[in-house]
Amino acid sequence: MIQGLDHVQLAMPRGQEPQGRAFYGGLLGLGEVPKPPELAKRGGLWFELADGRGLHLGVEEPFAPAKKAHPAFRVATLDALAQALKAAGHPVTWDDSVPDVRRFHSADPFGNRLEFQASGPHGS
Q: How far is CA 64 from the centre of its chain?
């Protein structure tokens, strides 16, 4: 029945699109995709990952960040991303509890939990 994953949606506060663009588009390098006009009226942002899957940020009121639920992104340059996130003031918490997977958790500007990983014990 299910053939794959199209997109993941995270919540964001109303009016915070500039912060979302700076983080997801600027810092993480995701390409922004225009929302359909009817959905654009609601606020929020859509981004596309290199594999064509989407990351959507939807306005939620009242807003509450996801502290446990999270997307996990595969990253080619994990250490470089960790350094960039730290330099931008975002937390970086390494976690070696999954064998053969280098990974860390961070948070977007809204407090949503994010995981970044590279497969293998010596991932980049």
A: 16
